[in-house]
Structure formats: C-alpha cells, structure tokens
Amino acid sequence: MTSTAYDRKALWMLLAATALMLLFGLGSRELWGAETRWANIALQMLQSGDYFDPYLKGGPYYDKPLLSYWLITASAWLTGSLGPWSLRLSSVVAAWLSVWLVYLLGEQLFRKGTGLIAGWMLATTFYFVFWARVATADILTVCGVLAAVWWYWRGPDDTKLWRYVVFFGLLALTSLFKGLIGFILPGLVLLPHLLSDKRWKLHLNLRLAAALLIAGTFYMAPFLLSHLYGAPNYGESGLGLVLRENVVRFFQPFDNIGPIYTYLIYLPVYTLPWAPCWLIALWVALRHWRQIEPDTRWLIQGLALLMIFFTASGSRRSYYVLPLVPFAQLLGAWWITRRMAARNIEGRGLKIGFGVATAVLVGVLGVLYPWTNSGGGVIRFGETVREQASQQAPLDQWRVVMVEVDNKVPMYLQTGGTPFYYVAETADFPRSGDSAALIAWLERSSGQPWNPQRTIFVAQYRQGEPVPLGYLGADHRIITTTPTRGEQFFHGREDQSVAYLPNPS
Asked: pTM of the entire structure?
C-alpha cells in the first residue's frame, strides 16, 4: 500500500470511528438542560411558520442568534419531525467536521502524523463528544473557529479578495451561531502569527476592507430580515442581544459567574483522558522555547490569549472552555509525534489507547446512556400522549396548552397541529374548579374558540408535590411521566410531566 493510500485509509478510519461515537444511540437520550429551550423555540418556529421571532415560555426570547435554531428546523424538515435526532444533528455534523479540521491543521502545520493523532485525541475526548451530542450552539462555534483558522493557514500571506471574503464570511457565520465571539476567538488565535514579522502590514489593503464590508452585510442579514418580516409587536431586538450578551456580559456579568480560576480547572478536565499530553507538551515547549518550531510557538501563544480572554470575562462556565480543547489536543499531538520521532517508534500503544477510548465512549454514550434513559422519561411520556390522542382523532386536530407551574416549563409536545398555547404562571387561570371553567378562561384570554374534546393540557411539577390542574382528572385521562431505568436504579424522578386528555365523548 502506498503512503498516500495508507494516509487516506487512516483518515477514513478516524472519521468513521468519530461518526460511530457521535451517532450511536443519539436519539435515545432524554432532552437535557438547555436542549429543552432549543426544542421549544424550534417547535414554535415550525408550528407557527415564523422563523424570525424566537419565543420561549410564551414570550420573546432572542437569547441566541437565529442560525442555530434554523439548523434545527432544517434538520426537522429533512428527518420529517422534531425529535432528539433532528435537535442534535447539527451539533453532531459540526463535531465531525471539527475532527476533520483538526486533522488538516495538524498535518499542515506540524510533522506528518500530527493531524491524525490530534484528530483521534479530539474524537476520543469525553466532554467534546458529550457536548457534540447536545443541542446547543457551543460545538457549532468550535467548528466555525477551527474552519476560520484552517482557512487562514492555507495561505497566511495570500491577499486575494476571494480569500478574504471566505475568511471573514466564516467569522460572520460563526458569530451567527452564538455571538461575536465568532469574530473574536479566531482573531485571538491568529494574532501572534499576524504580529510576527509584522505580517499584519501585508493585509492592510482595500481588498480586506471590501471583504469586511461583505461579511458585515452577511452577518446583519438575519437581523434585518427579522426586523422586516418578523412580528411587528415582537418585544426583543437581535442587535440588543448582541450588545447584552457580548459586551455587557463580559464587563458586567449578570449570570454564569464563576471564580477566576474556573478555566485552570476545567481545561484539563475537558481534555481528559489526554490532558497529561498537552500539559507535558507545554512544559517541554517552554523549556525549549527558542528551539521549537515557530508554528508551535504560535499555537501556545494563541492558546494563552484564549485563556486570558475567557478568564478576563466576568461570566464563566465550565463548557465555555470548549473552543480551547481542539488547540490543546493539537499541542499534545505535537509532543507525541516529536517524542515518537526522537525514539523512532510507531506508537502501537497509542493505537490501543485510542481503540480503548473509542470503545469506552461508544459504551458509555451509545449504550449506557440510552439504557438508563429507556423504559420511561419524557420521551416515552410524549409517545404515550400522542398514541392515546391519535386513538381519538388525527394528531393534527389536537391543540396543546402548556401550563407553567412554579416556574417549570413543560417538556415540549409535538402533535403536528396548531402551535401550542402557553399559559404563564402569573396568569389568572383557574387553579381549582372544573374543565369547563378552564376552557372558558382560555377562550376569554386567547379571544378564540376552543374545542374541549381536542385540547390537551400539559404541566410539569416536582415529585411529591400536588399534581397541577388535578381537577381535570374528573373528565380527563391522566398521563404522567414514568421513571426511566436509570432513575429506577439510582434515584426517583424529581421533575414530573402530566398530560390531561379529554375522555371520549
């Protein structure tokens, strides 16, 4: 087998193993954490046809730029429904591309084999794969940052207009996932290289200014479309979000406030099991700073700037460190290949380690997690509600009323009918009485007629507390969340969902 054929086979083996770790059992885990927020927002977009105004809990919620929601709705259109698979698919694709991009960066910047080792290290990093299987914008941001850095390194001294347009277009696209860090993070990573040999002077030209203008227009397009075609009475501004989330939060954090040493702890944690590799690499590089390759010095300086930036921000959470993880693993791979070349070894033990790590991740995330999430939970709850409702009438004839109780937002429930109607906890809906009084209140508050035989009420409550809207049990079937196997084995379920289906007339 030729060297080129071997390299191609090794790459495809890496990408195939990565796909296995990312996809196996993906749709079997319950929605977790912020995923319910993305699910509710995307569901309301799909049901209402309004893709420019994100809503949550019945009110405007422009917490993130629109692109991450649009990717989920596009996945739902491709797969035919909104569910765990379609919610997480965009994150999975971004993670798979991130592994490929790390491979390309390593092979381009360092000795042969560095990219392959870095790709395996990233693909078998537990928290990277964990967050890649979660429906949020974080892994999308990681992929965008890596894409911009990779594009820059394809021709760092190239000043053609189209190269600038692609580079700044990638920055704009990344910023439409989570915020302006899509511009800031690649800039910080590449700043040391731009400053070396005064390379930045080479790029001070009108072509760069023109590309910036094009990218700025591209970035502003969704906000402009939202302003022109969104609901005229929508109460939040997308650009106001940009200011609040990217400027105010940095200097005057209003949530997610962690200690200043947060990332000194979580970068090693988030790079397990390979954290010792980049820590040793850093120590070796600092000891031989003048002798190591310029690109290695750039990598360490870029990592340092990212660490300083995130630490300087007053808003700190563990998973904010994710954009640093690929670059830390690149540094670890540099040290490993350097050591292998010095000792003239092939790294058989490393291959075994990657194989074991792959098996462990598939076992934990693809087998154990799905098993612990089976047998009950909100996924089964939603399936049961739909099954029983469809026995009375087609699903698209039903309307769902989500009732907030004690600041708990019910799990999203998809019927294919009209958008769900949200009832806030502060509303004066009847806390007691009968179903006729609740339907009458709905008609008064919404200004539209309601068919009591085609209305499903859903609420959430904490185990051990009174079931909300319990009076509906007089003429409705009650469906509640049943514990999953994991909850049966480890502990009881804290948050319960309850649905009320009208008895057949």
From this structure: 0.90
